[in-house]
Amino acid sequence: MLEFFNEGQVYEVILVTRSNATPVGVVRRGRKFFFRLFGGKSAEELREWPQATIQITGDVELLVKLALNMDVALEFEGREGYRWIRNLPGFYGRVEVEEEEHEDELGKARTLLCFMEPLGYIPGKPAPRPLSRADFHLLEMAIHLTRLPVALRNGRGDVAKDLYEGVMLNYRAYKRFGGSSAIARRMAQEAEKMFRDSGRFPKRETSDP
């Protein structure tokens, strides 16, 4: 299954650590997966317990809910100190970590650079649901939304404005391609609230036509 990951491309997967599950973008180089964590519970757990699983899903709503810490009903299994979500295929292995300072348009941050070489394969039966065009926009909304509070907190006004507009642009595209999940509207409303609370007062865009 490793060959399904083209080298150099970023894939959105679920990272499962000792007691947490979160989406993360991974890149395969040879037999290793590389990813970066910007703090949070998964980073803390990998420092103390460097074992994890990487799992594959086509359920974009699941990825979004995990990214935004929404309630999700999941069943877990595991063995030998590894833990994974039942019925989702993937890999398990030990994780090497390096503390690294990272700088981008959001500012400087201490990050955890992670390398995992799979030790074993996790069988699974993901739901045979094809991705829709709306799904891609829902995922982009979540990515912009998780970065927005960081930009606001770091005083990066122009970046925050671009991220806010990115949420709204993808929200409109999501609806145009037939998306109907309440999660999308909730994300648009949350982005608007963040901007209003910051004193920027953007034009309201979340109301449906």
Structure at a glance:
The chain is of the alpha+beta class and 209 residues long.
Word description of this protein:
The chain is of the alpha+beta class. The chain folds into 2 domains: 2-122, Electron Transport, Fmn-binding Protein, Chain A (Pnp Oxidase, Chain A); 133-198. Helix content is 35%, strand content 30%. The protein contains 5 helices and 9 strands. The chain has helices at 41-48, 60-67, 133-153, 157-176, 182-197, and strands at 10-16, 21-29, 32-37, 51-55, 76-79, 82-85, 90-104, 107-116, 120-122. The strands form 2 sheets. The protein has a 6-stranded antiparallel β-barrel. Strands 5-6 form a two-stranded antiparallel ribbon. Helix 3 (133-153) runs parallel beside helix 5. The model has no long low-confidence stretch (mean pLDDT 90).
Task: Write a concise keyword list for the protein shown above.
two-stranded antiparallel ribbon, 35% helix, Pnp Oxidase, Chain A, 209 residues, 5 helices, 6-stranded antiparallel barrel, globular, alpha+beta, 2 domains
Give the C-alpha Rg.
Answer: 18 Å
**What name goes with the CATH superfamily of the largest domain?**
Electron Transport, Fmn-binding Protein, Chain A
The main pleated sheet reads as:
6 strands, antiparallel, barrel
Strand element count = 9
Count of discrete domains? 2
Number of helices: 5
Tell me the layout of helices and strands.
Elements lengths: L9 E7 L4 E9 L2 E6 L3 H8 L2 E5 L4 H8 L8 E4 L2 E4 L4 E15 L2 E10 L3 E3 L10 H21 L3 H20 L5 H16 L12
Antiparallel strand pairs: 1-2, 1-4, 2-3, 3-8, 4-7, 5-6, 7-8, 7-9
